[in-house]
Amino acid sequence: MLPLRLALIVSALSPGVVLAAELNLQPPVTSVARSIYDLHTLLLYITVAIVVIVFSVMFYAIIRHRKSAGRSAKQFHENTTVEIIWTAIPLLILVGMAWPATQAILAQKSTRGEDMTVKVTGYQWKWQYDYLDDGVAFMSHLTTPRDGTLKTAGGPYLLEVDEPLVVPTGKKVRLLLTANDVIHSWWVPALGVKQDAIPGYVRDTWFKVDKPGVYRGQCAELCGKDHGFMPIVVDARSPEDYQQWLAAKKVAAAAKAEDPNKVWTLPELMARGEKVYLQNCVACHMANGAGVPGTFPALAGSKIATTDKPGHIDMVLNGSKKNAAMAAWGKQLSDTEIAAVISYERNAWGNNTGDAVQPKDIKAARGGKV
Amino acid sequence: MQGHGTAAGEESAAQQTRYFVPPPSRWPLVGAVALFCIGLGAAFALNGMLLGPLSLGAGVAILVWMLVGWFRDVIRESRAGSYRAREDMSFRWGMGWFIFSEVMFFAAFFGALYYVRVIALPELGDETHKLLWPDFNPAWPLQTAPGIDAVYQAMGAWGLPAINTAILLSSGGTLTWAHWGMIEGKRSQLAWGLGITVLLGMLFLSLQAYEYHHALSELGLSFASGAYGMTFYMMTGFHGMHVLVGTLILAVIWVRVLRGHFSEHNHFAFEAAAWYWHFVDVVWLLLFVFVYWL
Amino acid sequence: MNIADGTQVASHIQHDKPRGLARWLFATNHKDIGTLYLWFSFAMFISGGVMALGIRAELFSPGLQFWQPELFNQLTTLHGLVMVFGAIMPAFTGLANWMLPLMIGAPDMAFARMNNWSFWLLPPAALLLMISFWVPGGAAAAGWTLYAPLSTQGGMGTDLTIFAIHILGVSSIMGAINIVVTVLNLRAPGMTLMKMPMFAWASLITAYLIIAVMPVLAGVVTMVLTDRHFGTHFFNAAGGGDPVMYQHIFWFFGHPEVYIMALPAFGIVSQVIPTFARKPLFGYTSMVYATSSIAILSFMVWAHHMFTTGMPATAQLFFMYATMLIAVPTGVKVFNWVATMWEGAMTFETPMLFAIGFVMLFTIGGLSGVILSVAAVDIQLQDTYYVVAHFHYVLVAGALFSLFSAVYYWFPKMTGKMYSEKLGQLHFWWSLVWFNITFFPMHFLGLAGMPRRIPDYALQFTDFNAIASVGAFMFGFGQLIFFYNMVRSIRHGQPAPQKPWEGANTLEWAIATPAPYHSFVVAPQLEVGDNGVILEMKGGEHH
Ligand code: HEA
Ligand code: HEA
Ligand code: CUA
Ligand SMILES: [Cu+2]
Description:
The complex is a heterotrimer of chains A (370), B (294) and C (543).
Chain A: H1 2-13, H2 15-19, H3 31-64, H4 80-109, E1 116-123, E2 126-131, E3 136-140, E4 165-168, E5 173-179, E6 184-188, E7 193-197, E8 203-207, E9 213-218, E10 231-237, H5 239-256, H6 266-280, H7 282-285, H8 303-306, H9 309-318, H10 335-347, H11 359-366
Parallel strand pairs in A: 1-5, 4-10
Antiparallel strand pairs in A: 1-2, 2-3, 5-8, 6-7, 9-10
Helix pairs in contact in A: 3-4, 6-10, 10-11
Chain B: H1 9-15, H2 27-46, H3 51-79, H4 85-124, H5 160-184, H6 187-217, H7 226-258, H8 268-293
Helix pairs in contact in B: 2-3, 4-7, 4-8, 5-6, 5-8, 6-7, 7-8
Chain C: H1 20-25, H2 30-59, H3 69-104, H4 112-120, H5 122-131, H6 150-153, H7 156-185, H8 198-229, H9 243-260, H10 263-277, H11 284-297, H12 313-325, H13 327-341, H14 350-373, H15 375-381, H16 385-415, H17 421-448, H18 462-492, E1 522-529, E2 533-541
Antiparallel strand pairs in C: 1-2
Helix pairs in contact in C: 2-3, 2-4, 2-18, 3-7, 3-16, 4-7, 5-7, 7-8, 8-9, 8-10, 8-11, 10-13, 10-14, 10-16, 11-13, 14-16, 14-17, 16-17, 17-18
The complex binds heme-A (HEA) (2 copies), dinuclear copper ion and copper (II) ion (CU).
């Protein structure tokens, strides 16, 4: 039954990718990834050779030196010469491994001399990309629907995002990584980059992609419930295409900037708020506002979301003092977005308070601070 | 049995053909129940559940019962002469390795102190980290922290802490003096030396309690005061707990001395307590240097 | 007998074998306590195994079938904790309890009463872990490594886990002190340190590692506890702490911990292979030195678990070189075992099969460890299924197989019965085959880019996951054969002779089968060869 269902799903989705058994590291597209690939191949050969030699000797003994083959045991049990030999040979092998490894590490670690810098921030459970040189910033969310159907939003299952990290080929991109809540790890196998993003600290790494293409990876450090649902997509384009994309992005950002003094109607706020909620809050508080009992509180019918309006604004803006999981969203969301999501929470799921929180309320709550 | 060069000499080693193995005992099981109640109770209490304090209290009570009962058995066995050279050697090894485990426990916290001071804080204050913490200045002792608004003061080394150092050092001296009394059979020197040591231990604890009060109310220094506050309280706090335990042990030994337990040659319980006390002493010296002074 | 009444005890070991439940609850006999340890660890192995099957069931195919992600993470976390602290470590302590006094001619463990406490602290700790599944928020879900600050976020299950770890720490430290003191102080005359069995050496050095690192683990989880509830900032940059500091302290414990699970296995295999090769252990002295070097090196390599945290190149290089170096003494051991087989007269009873299986699969796991130790390559493999494959090769085919070998090997001495050789052989071949089917494909998954600790995965990983899941269920089923064999043989097995293995010549085989309840009440005079081989024995008293 299950295998059959599986086979159906598999062939329906992406027949080519799935059935080709993947046995090795992904094809590298950077010099670092290539050095890792080659180094791994070398190590594999060496270790397979060790296995073959050691096991051959052992199996020869097992087959020939058995009692049922009429052997009687020789009683020797010491030989300093062989002991020295089999201490020295592995040492030499290790030196042979360490030499190319050292060079590869030094190359991986030379992060400076960059052409551009992107700040990457890990959030539970999405990535933020901040093009420090160009003032473009956006969040990158998983787009695969989470209803268990294995349907995708048009890309590979679980490895598709709404906004990939777009980079130019042939340019050294330096990443500055940090995180907002817990440790995440930014990993794209084809680039040969895996770097933990540590809350409160900045770490750096780099890559220079050779050829245009879309390269996929995912978060590689257990970061809570949706650790498995935190993909990374890098879209490498030729420098010209990249410049076009960048220009378009800047225009779009300017157009999107909303008038913070606009007064919104409740239905407008609700519509906008639902979007914000589904992008940011749904992972913990769930689509029906019921939360996860014991871990993430319900908002449907909660005291804060039905009565204490200032408390609600404070919670969303500044986060929880008690539990770091509830982040200070003021740092990530605009006044409009916060106003909208609070209005949404105060009116959805039977929380019919009728409250319409306006962007200016949020601005006031921030006390001028951003 | 074979002579492992035990101090007790040939006669007792030859006498001893059998190693003392205690009869079945209920205390270990009682102790297990106690720790279960404590673990469960503490977890529930920390999460504001009613069951918590009840279970915690019950656990502590059972633990005390167990300790009293277990040590009573041990003392009786010792009085009955069950422990001879080889058992004595086991106790010595055992106590030594136990203290080694304590050393490693403190090492974890000294390691943490070293790490925040030498690695974490300088990093948080470096050029790259201006991106996240533009105003942070990592000078030690830390008066504030990257993301903490409250300002607090560090504890100076040369007031109370220096006095406490003197107290603990002299308590080490009085204890050694008492030990000489034990070895030379001078019972009153033993009793006085031990009694004074216990008093010095209590004095140390009172002064430390006062110091905490001062730190909390006047310096604004709490457990939550960043890297300085957390290491300060954690390390001096665990040390203080060890002083408390050591004082209790010495007090019990003192009572036993008054009751005429122990002889010139046979007093390992006393020595074990003394080892422990000296260990706690040495930890304090390190604390004085690394937590208060440098 | 009034068990609390100390006045009776002056007359040494007069108390005879107690009966009924009291025998187990109040035990001070190393054999009874050893038996308790072994059964407990088997129960934990089953519990941890059932959790593993939960993991494998979910991963059989893509999509979420059985568990929500949060429960999946709890299963992974508790599977790791239960297997490490509940199954493998207690099993080794139990074996040391059972066999050490017999192998070195001691009357019992040095602290027989404390020994009982070491054991009886385990069930409460296990209970706290199991209870945590049912409290609000569920069990700890930050992985067995409990990395902060993820572990500072969790619910009260995390607190229960922390306290369970404290209790486990107390238990294993006391157990280890007992082992160290027994080996150092209670050897029979003639059983010198440089002659005693490798198993005793391995237990001694392991116990030393436990005493050195369990307190460090207790310390670091205590910091997590105060970060959670008392406002400290050990692992929070806002207060000047550092999440990475958690990893440094944890792995200062964690790496020696993996050798705590490997060294006793080396000891067991060093007893079993000579017995069935009918040849003395090759290079006994170098084995002792190799074991010690591994222990010492194990304190200097911890950051190889942290190559992706972003440490400076110099640190990466140091930890890489130090880690690679461990391959040398471990290689010496492997070569010595092979040399012991060479020119022997081998037979292949179940203990020997498991020992050979151990040597093969542990070597494979060790070599994948060396590949991981190369920091440049580890960048791709860290936190992937390649690591999962590596450590199951050293833990399941390593630690667990060695335990099976030991249990079959000493079963006759412990119970006085023979196990069924036929079922034993079946258990071995079954386990060997399905083990590899389960865990070998995980290397490919890791290389191809599948992260560990995820409940759902991209579709290109489907095939190998399905294979691994089928393998896991079949492997688990095979353990029922073992269980059946043990229970049936204890009840109805053939009586075992004093020395069922022709080539066995350490001290435990020189006394009656089953071992008398109080063995070596009076120590024998011994003349001993390398690896605890008894050349001559005079005197000794049992009852
Ligand atoms: C019994 C337990 C055990 C043992 C013995 C080992 C042994 C080794 N381990 Fe393993 N390891 C684990 C249990 C163990 N490990 C666990 C549980 C984890 C994961 C923890 C977690 O994250 O949850 C882990 C993770 C782990 C990592 C981190 C991976 C990552 O997360 O990125 C690394 C990296 O260096 C590593 C390396 C090694 C090495 C080099 C050895 C060496 O000791 C191996 C030495 C043996 C040999 C090399 C084979 C025999 C030798 C020869 C035949 C001689 C010739 C050989 C050469 C010349 C190479 N291990
Ligand atoms: C210490 C020893 C140890 C042992 C023995 C095992 C045994 C097994 N482990 Fe492992 N495992 C770890 C230690 C161990 N593990 C650790 C430390 C981790 C890391 C955790 C973390 O990431 O934090 C881990 C993680 C881990 C993962 C990765 C989880 C993840 O990343 O999300 C997986 C996945 O397949 C796995 C599988 C298995 C399987 C199938 C077995 C099998 O060998 C189990 C076999 C046993 C049984 C199945 C039970 C006995 C039999 C019965 C009950 C009979 C009934 C059976 C049937 C009805 C079929 N383990
Ligand atoms: Cu983010 Cu895992
Ligand atoms: Cu390691």
